Backbone:
């Protein structure tokens, strides 16, 4: 037939996935993470080995009505009107370069059928990982202390800065004494200036939008069951963070810690 042998054995390159196939993959990701926007969906597809363009993903998500809109709610949880000692801001110009360099601490509320449940949490300023948390029915000092002790029991506190607002829970004697006993430097945002604690505010917003508003808890027991699951199994280990190059916090920490160990081993070889 006059056909070259190379032509006979030629295998065409795989083309781009069809809109139907891509839409199915998008819907599967959106089912697991209902409040992923098109940028995170695009990153998730690329992690699966697909070459996709964010504009195409945006178009398909519009066609399938998969674009989300964040709900908004607010309840004050900070009481700064007290006579306790307030501490200066130590992280105003600090950019963390390792884990356990800065912990951001704050409190938020979770609405249930008859009242509220309060969540105190600490987020690592480098990896965005939730390193400790506590749940309770009141805004007591015990709530924030349980979150702090949870973090201390699992993490390294050497050369660590603890940053919070000037709320009475974080200024109380018992809480401050725990920080001092573990050699943790105390840092606080200025009054009515929450921007230095934006990383934990971002976590709270994600928690509300992607978990709390979705399930509309009715009982305290439901909160105790769902919130730990979301923090450990979703937020820390699976959810892609744009600030981390679209990686989950635990994966980001593991990669960074491997680099640190490699650099340390190289330094040991050079010095020896």
Residues:
């Amino acid at each position: 037939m006059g056909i070259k042998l190379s032509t006979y054995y030629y295998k065409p390159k795989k083309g781009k996935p069809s809109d139907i196939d891509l839409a199915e993959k998008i819907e599967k990701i959106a089912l697991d993470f209902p409040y992923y926007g098109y940028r995170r969906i695009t990153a998730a597809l690329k992690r699966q080995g697909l070459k996709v363009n964010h504009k195409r993903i945006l178009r398909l998500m519009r066609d399938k009505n998969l674009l989300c809109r964040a709900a908004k709610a607010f309840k004050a949880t900070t009481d700064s009107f007290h006579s306790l000692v307030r501490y200066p801001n130590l992280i105003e110009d600090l950019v963390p370069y390792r884990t356990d360099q800065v912990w951001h601490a704050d409190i938020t509320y979770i609405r249930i059928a008859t009242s509220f449940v309060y969540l105190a949490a600490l987020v690592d300023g480098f990896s965005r990982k939730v390193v400790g948390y506590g749940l309770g029915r009141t805004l007591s000092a015990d709530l924030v202390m349980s979150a702090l002790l949870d973090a201390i029991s699992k993490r390294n506190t050497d050369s660590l800065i603890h940053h919070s607002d000037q709320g009475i829970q974080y200024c109380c004697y018992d809480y401050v004494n725990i920080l001092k006993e573990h050699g943790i430097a105390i840092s606080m945002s200025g009054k009515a200036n929450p921007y230095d604690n934006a990383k934990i505010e971002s976590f709270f917003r994600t928690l509300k939008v992607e978990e709390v508003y979705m399930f509309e808890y009715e009982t305290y027991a439901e909160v105790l069951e769902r919130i730990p699951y979301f923090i450990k199994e979703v937020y820390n280990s699976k959810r892609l963070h744009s600030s981390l190059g679209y990686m989950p916090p635990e994966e980001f920490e593991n990669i960074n810690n491997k680099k640190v160990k490699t650099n340390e081993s190289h330094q040991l070889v050079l010095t020896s």
Summary: The beta strands are 102-111, 116-124, 130-136, 161-164, 185-188. The radius of gyration is 23 Å. The chain is about 45% helix and 10% strand. Residues 249-271 form the longest helix (23 residues).
